[in-house]
Amino acid sequence: MTDVKFTDFKVPHTGVVLVGTDGSDGAARAVAFAADEAKARGAKLMVAHSWFIPNFGYGSAYVAPVTDIENAAKEILDKILTQAKAEYPDLAIEGRLLEGTPGVRLCEIAEKEAEVVVIGTRGHGSFTSLLLGSVSSYVLHHSPVPVLLVRPEVDQS
């Protein structure tokens, strides 16, 4: 068996740490972790939020107008960017509003622009905490660059 060293891996150096967010508490933890990672690397932080219209299959379902869905997503991203820029004033931070399935779109952006992707995991507690969310699972298995998974904070009391 050949010894594999960390230095054997080819990691792109784009100067961008990409973090996906959905506005949840777990995603906020991932954004904070990604900001610290970007700062340590001397990189820019790219905060991405994706919106899409889910496919409900057959039958009818009410779907808000596309502009309403996109505007709501933009509000979520703007709020996260405002908070991140206030907490990390010396860090270059860029927002990216994406249309499409979140995991797929994060991997597409990562392939072209990022050296690492940071994403939160789903936090349910007990046995189900072992499971990843669908977006984090997709990114973990399809990302062309290294992925850092940020678990939810565990109550130690």
SSE blueprint and pairings:
Elements: E1 16-20, H1 25-41, E2 44-51, H2 66-87, E3 93-99, H3 102-113, E4 116-120, H4 134-142, E5 147-150
Parallel strand pairs: 1-2, 1-4, 2-3, 4-5
Helix pairs in contact: 3-4
Summed up, what is this model?
The protein is α/β, with parallel strands linked by helices. The chain contains 4 helices and 5 strands; from the N terminus they run E-H-E-H-E-H-E-H-E. Helix 1 links the parallel strand 1 and strand 2.
Main features:
157 residues, alpha/beta, Rossmann fold, 5-stranded parallel beta sheet, 4 helices, 5 strands, 18% strand, globular
Amino- and carboxy-terminal Cα gap: 44 Å
**How many strands, which pairing sense, and closed or not: the largest β-sheet?**
5 strands, parallel
Structural category is alpha/beta
How many domains make up the coordinates? Answer: 1
Q: Which band does the percent of strand residues land in?
A: 15-25%
Rg measurement, Å:
17 Å
C-alpha geometry: globular
Mean pLDDT: 84
CATH superfamily: HUPs
CATH architecture: 3-Layer(aba) Sandwich
General description of the model:
The chain has helices at residues 25-41, 66-87, 102-113, 134-142, and strands spanning 16-20, 44-51, 93-99, 116-120, 147-150. With 157 residues, the protein is of the alpha/beta class. The protein has a single domain, classed as Rossmann fold (3-Layer(aba) Sandwich). Strands 3-2-1-4-5 form a five-stranded parallel beta sheet, with helices on both faces. Helix 1 links the parallel strand 1 and strand 2 (44-51). The longest helix is centred in the middle third of the chain and has 22 residues, at 66-87. The termini are far apart.
